[in-house]
Amino acid sequence: MSHPIEHTGIVERIDGSKITVVVEQQSACAACHAKGLCSEQGSRKVIEAESDNPELFSIGDTVRVALESNRMALQSVVWGYILPFVVLIVALLVAKIFGASDGIAALATLLSVALYYVVLYALRHYFERNIKFTITKE
Q: What is the pLDDT along the chain (138 residues), one digit of tens a residue?
């Protein structure tokens, strides 16, 4: 049995059955005296979760959001990180094979990754249906 990936956050907005939760990512080095020099300080993430009972939640509530399966987490990592890297490498290799200069190859690589993210954005409704977060009160 797989364990869900969970985060604690604060309800920021409620729109019908969609609940927007802000999660403050905490660095493992939070107690370090040199944390001001590190770029890995806490960062803010926004997660949208669906709820069958949105009336149970209020803005400002502390909640737990969870991604129920490791398969969903793996799918997210593949689409968000691994495939863009593959697109970047393939575009660079194709540009160099066709004899492009370094500047043109770099531009083609950046444009191909930008195009990838435009397509990913266009497919956002597919991901909303297939990658779902659940939400529970803390």
A: 456 678 889 999 999 888 999 987 655 555 554 445 444 455 678 888 888 888 889 899 999 888 766 777 788 889 989 999 999 999 999 999 999 999 999 999 999 999 999 999 999 888 877 777 888 887
The 3-state DSSP class for residue 104 equals helix
Q: Give the number of other Cβ atoms within 10 Å of residue 38's Cβ.
A: 10
In a 10 Å sphere around its CB, with 0-12 CB exposed, 13-18 middle and 19+ buried, how is residue 19 labelled? Answer: buried
Count of residues making up the chain: 138
pTM of structure: 0.63
| Range(s) of the domain holding residue 99 | 5-137
Three-class SS of 16-30: CCEEEEEEEECCCCC
Q: Structural domain tally of the chain?
A: 1
Identify the bridge partners of residue 24 per DSSP, sorted by sequence position: 44
Cα–Cα distance measured from residue 43 to residue 53, given in angstroms and rounded to the nearest whole number? 29
Return the CATH number at 11.
2.40.50
